[in-house]
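For this section, I looked closely at a protein sequence along with its fold in token form, which I now present.
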Amino acid sequence: MLGPHYIIPMMETEFDHVIRIAGLLRRAGGRALLAGGCVRDHLLGRAPEDFDIEVYGLTAAGVEAALAGEYALDAVGMSFGVMKVRHHEIDIALPRSENKIGRGHRGFVVETRIDMDFASASARRDFTVNAMMMDALTGEVIDPWHGQDDLRRGILRHVSEHFSEDPLRVLRGMQFIARFRLVPAPETLALCAALSQEELPRERIAAEWEKMLRQGELPSAGLNFLRKIGFLRFYPELAALCGCPQDPRWHPEGDVWTHTLATLDAAAKFRYSDPEDKLTLMLAALCHDFGKVLCTATAPDGGITSRGHDTLTEPARRFLTRLWNRETLTDRVLKLIRCHMQPWQLIRDGSGDRAFRHLALAAERLDLLADLAECDVRGIAASPEELAAKLGRIAEFRARAEFLAVDHAPPKPLIMGRHLLERGIAPGPGMRPWLDRCFAAQLEGKFSDLDGAMNYLDSLL
């Protein structure tokens, strides 16, 4: 038992380590300034996930000496004057100038200068809201580019003409607009429209898309930004949604682009413990109607149809594989797209348990499929009564999937090859018809546990 004077030690936070590091650097004659996103997040009242410290008055060797014995540094970017504090989400950098000398994101000459003034050091940053610094020990905010004003007004504005040296900043703008609900300044829109992403590596592009999809509060704003500056030319599957008609009786909100953005915004509100689940849902919401471009037609009665669009997943595959070399992710997303119409259809048609089990095999995750179906419904400008009715069907679908224990994973065969061997069936290809017959019976609901499975198997022999 703990004594009356025992004090439970509190867990140290990353910010505690930032303060300790700043104190060590100050004793060595340097000044530690928090820089970039962690300052922006602090001013927005959000807890930063990582910290960037810019050190003035010390060389890289001086920084290392000041922290020796307390913190180990990894020279992950010494050519850029960047060091990482080992075992912490803290990066330490020296002020530096960058001069563009060649094409691509590596065509820079970087020079560290410990005596740079704050405005010159921050001029290389992308947006004013990311160009603020804050003294880690005093809390003084240093803001040579008026980022606080822009943040207060919800404006995304580039810092200087150096912005155009790295076109990735356009996609950073996309995800900042989506994450922080910022409005791009007219001059920033014009500058972004003059740039191109053609020379950017796929992994850098995908990283910015992931930030928007995982963290964006209003992803539609980020995508409308891309449309305004003409960047949809790099994403033909998205460009094709613009102007693709839908029947106003079922989609009064407008074309497929409008519906897709509303669906994506609905998906952004879902929270998951596994970040891969969030990315999967967001990509499925983004791509779920790509097939409509291939099959939308005008019916004899003048209505607009897109029958079978859920099965036409090749445009989604092209989009996903162009950005991500992740076969498992692509497979998960495409399965949801192929099945996204079925949750409300199964309930509408009064389908039995067998249909739910088969759908679980096709979609893999009925919980994510229900989430996608809900987002799809919320992306329609339906009346409150229509919306409530459709959401009620999806809620019923969720309950059935959970009751059948197929909401998080498809059913697995209860009868395995070893069970056949135990009953004298010879190993080899002849086992497959037995296993298929038994699994089909399991999906029909003829048994649901191992005892029932064995009784069923014995009845066949």
About this structure: The longest strand covers residues 51-56.
